[in-house]
Amino acid sequence: xxTTTGRAHVALRESILRGDLAPGAHLGEVELxxxxxxxxxxxxxxxxxxxxxxxxxxxxxxxxxxxSFSPDDxxxxxxxxxxxxxxxxxxxxxxxxxxxxxxxxxxxxxMLEIGAPGPDQDLDAIVPLNRDFxxxxxxxxxxxxxxxxxxxxxxxxxxxxxxxxxxxxxxARSLAHHGEMVAALRxxxxxxxxxxxRSHIGNARAVMVRNR
Amino acid sequence: xxTTTGRAHVALRESILRGDLAPGAHLGEVELxxxxxxxxxxxxxxxxxxxxxxxxxxxxxxxxxxxSFSPDDxxxxxxxxxxxxxxxxxxxxxxxxxxxxxxxxxxxxxMLEIGAPGPDQDLDAIVPLNRDFxxxxxxxxxxxxxxxxxxxxxxxxxxxxxxxxxxxxxxARSLAHHGEMVAALRxxxxxxxxxxxRSHIGNARAVMVRNR
DNA sequence: GCACCCTACGTTGCGTACAACGCTCCGGGA
DNA sequence: TCCCGGAGCGTTGTACGCAACGTAGGGTGC
Lengths: 212, 212
Description:
Chains A, B: Pfam families: FCD, GntR. Chains A, B: Keywords: DNA-binding, Transcription, Transcription regulation. Two copies of one chain form a homodimer. Chain A is mainly alpha-helical. Chain A has two domains: 63 residues, Winged helix-like DNA-binding domain superfamily/Winged helix DNA-binding domain (Arc Repressor Mutant, subunit A, Orthogonal Bundle); 140 residues, Four Helix Bundle (Hemerythrin (Met), subunit A) (Up-down Bundle). The first copy, chain A, is built from ten helices and three strands. The first copy, chain A, has a three-stranded antiparallel sheet. In chain A, a hairpin with a 3-residue loop joins strand 2 and strand 3. In chain A, helix 2 packs across helix 3 and helix 4 packs antiparallel against helix 10. The longest helix of chain A is centred in the middle third of the chain and has 25 residues. The radius of gyration of chain A is 18 Å and the shape is globular. The relative contact order of chain A is 0.13. The interface between A and B is medium-sized, with 29 and 29 residues. Chain A binds a DNA duplex through helix 3.
């Protein structure tokens, strides 16, 4: 049986990631409990976990609210990504199995399809695919400490809702990077792979910074 | 007023850091609650937070236990430190105030004193000083995301109880590094500072790996 | 003799009630 | 008119009780 706390946790996280709960919004325990149909106890536990992930901040006796990030915060997050993700990608290049490569290839291809300019473009649908891609890459790297360090900082939400912010050229670059990364992994070239990841993050940072 | 949960949190963390609660030890909620003189509720909250920090692991319906780390885990942790701490040190070199430098200098000097071979050597007393030194360095770097990423992974505990594992030469090097780091910061030389930090971590890694 | 099931116990998960804290609004004084 | 103090309200923090899950032990059937 999956615990009620666990369900509350993922439900709240999804709400935040989706943007239903805006940054800075106050999170009343009773309100959330009623909305989820549970008591306050699992809600408190879930908020606790989300606080650990950095998605919400709790102030003693004053409740919780969705975290918001200043431009400086964002810049710092990109610094951490830049320090860790290329390293993970390099490791992944040495460890990826054929199955891993196919899965990543599939994700990259689908993102390219639905991200292409035209009537079928669906920027929102890219979000989960992109998340899966980076998550899978981390899993392949098989570096738990590194994944943990990233997970607690690189709150996908911020990155996630910004595909709308990409101009066409940046978006095309970003989607192309995924494909190139798979190629580098397939070649087992750690240097190439990590360089592509650095480009990928640099491109994203430019988009984020420009928009603030 | 500081909350009961907060006190339970720090009390348990200290117990783990001090080694009173050995890695792998099962943590019963009622037992902890009785020992701390509180109810199970704040204990559960505290365990939740400790789990987020990576100090304990909770298994649904099966309770919590103190995390233990395999040699591979340790290696991964050093990888993360190597990716992040030199970067933080470089930033610190550009931002340290005279006050910061004096504080760090003082810490480095005291560690050197009590770490010197002889009757006054006190390896246990180095631990908190070392923790303060690295914490202060992170604070000076003023990179919240970077600090958060490290905090959630580099559970000082592991590093902390290992000064006894240092052979004399490695210990001397480690203590000298602190002083050299201060010198590099004072010179405002980011490259130098980060290089010393890389050496510092490499030295520590060698000690840890050799002892396993 | 071995494997499986079933029962009983101890634990954790959740709900609810009460206590304590913080905020807001109102009133009094300077 | 502005500032300070206090009471009321809504919130969060903690305790406790019950229910559900996991585990270990003994018993039964093959």
